[in-house]
Amino acid sequence: MAKVSIPDEVTAIANDIKNMKIRGAGKIARAAAKGLLIAANEYKNGMLENFLSYMNHVADILKNTRPTAVSLFNAISYVLSRLEKSKNYIKSVDEAKLIVVRAANMFIEYSLNAVEIIGEIGSKRISNGDVLLTHCNSSAAIAIMQKAHSQGKNIKVYATETRPKFQGHITARALARAGIEVTLIPDTAVRLVMREVDKVLVGADTVAANGAVINKIGTSVIALAAKEANVNFFVAAETYKFSPTTVIGELVVIEERDPKEVVPESYIRKYSSVNIRNPAFDVTPPEYIDVIITERGIIPPQAAILILEEEYGWAIEDYILQATRALESDEEAVTTW
Ligand code: RUB
Asked: Cα of 313 to ligand 1 centre, how many Å?
């Protein structure tokens, strides 16, 4: 295919995801869908034969931004699988563009609706007088707290600062704006305040087939402290945060970000002989999670596989087929050798 340029607006979306101007797994997914929509609309004077590879190229640029949140990959495959499935029937570029635009809009609408439904369903698990603790900045978790508050439940929330990028400050301000009593604490104060907490409520970047939840770094330590104190640990996650590739045993990649987010650039020279690591996410095992609140209902983490089968059965079959073929060709290579 001749080199096709990507619209500036799409490049800007990819950059914003990478440098975290757009962040949070749900927002990232919606931004990726919007990127595909813009790219389709901007495809000019191209041949239909090239449209699919152009869209795959745009998808690769968007996928190459942040590796952990599976919502990004699921949003892209939601849109592109619809194009792929209808490619033998499409007769013009305009028809192909329409499929992408419709699918992207459908995903965005589904996603916004899912967060609202999670708010509704999750609020039923919050009682009047509850003290909650949340980590990082999750729209799904915030939707639950806001809904519970709007139902007249008197709740108090501890919000962790969430080093090193301090997304907890965004959460604290959003909750305060909504009229909820919120206390901002350093991440290191979690175990101390846990004795006052009734429920921990966090979001998710990825839910694995075994029910493990991948979320902002520090989440798993909070889960440990909650378990120790016998405090319920709730996760709010839309179904497009469930990872189909984990069904065939793929591991979730944990993003490691620039050390300058831990030690600011102006100080970094003083640390030239210090190793600095900045992992952005960690894994909370299913044993530490009481429930996952999805737009399809509340499930124990061990039922994650059922959501995956229902939502991604078609994709999983493809992955299994691909994995079997890869295995067979490996075996063939070994025997030939
Ligand atoms: C954000 C984060 C959030 C989840 C869920 O990490 O870990 O808890 O993405 O958010 P980062 P939401 O700031 O590194 O993107 O519920 O809004 O999808």
From this structure: 26
Mutate to test the pocket of ligand 1, among 113, 138, 162 (most ligand atoms within 8 A of CB): 138
User: Which amino acids are annotated catalytic?
Assistant: 136, 205
DSSP for 40-102 reads HHH--S--HHHHHHHHHHHHHHHHTS-SS-HHHHHHHHHHHHHHHHHTTT--SHHHHHHHHHH
Instruction: Note the pLDDT of residue 3.
Output: 61
Angle between helices 8-18 and 25-42 (to 10 degrees): 170
Instruction: Express each pLDDT in 151-185 by its tens digit.
Output: 999 999 999 999 999 999 999 999 999 999 999 99
Rounded Cα–Cα distance for residues 63 and 18 (Å) = 10
The DSSP bridge partners found for residue 236 are 293
**CA 57 – CA 150 distance, rounded (Å):** 44
Distance from residue 27's CA to the centre of ligand 1 (Å)? 8
Assessment of whether the complete model's pTM goes beyond 0.90 = yes
Structural domains of the chain, ranges and CATH numbers in brackets: 8-116 (1.20.120.420), 124-316 (3.40.50.10470)
Confidence of residue 337 (pLDDT cuts 50, 70, 90): very low
Burial of 294 (0-12, 13-18, 19+ CB in 10 A): buried
The atom number, within ligand 1, closest to the CA of 281 reads 7
**Ligand 1 binding site (Cβ under 6 Å of any ligand atom):** 23-26, 69, 136, 138-140, 167, 203-205, 215-216, 280
Identity at 159, one-letter amino acid code? A
Tens-digit pLDDT profile for residues 5-51: 899 999 999 999 999 999 999 999 999 999 999 999 999 878 998 99
Atom 12 of ligand 1, nearest CA residue: 138
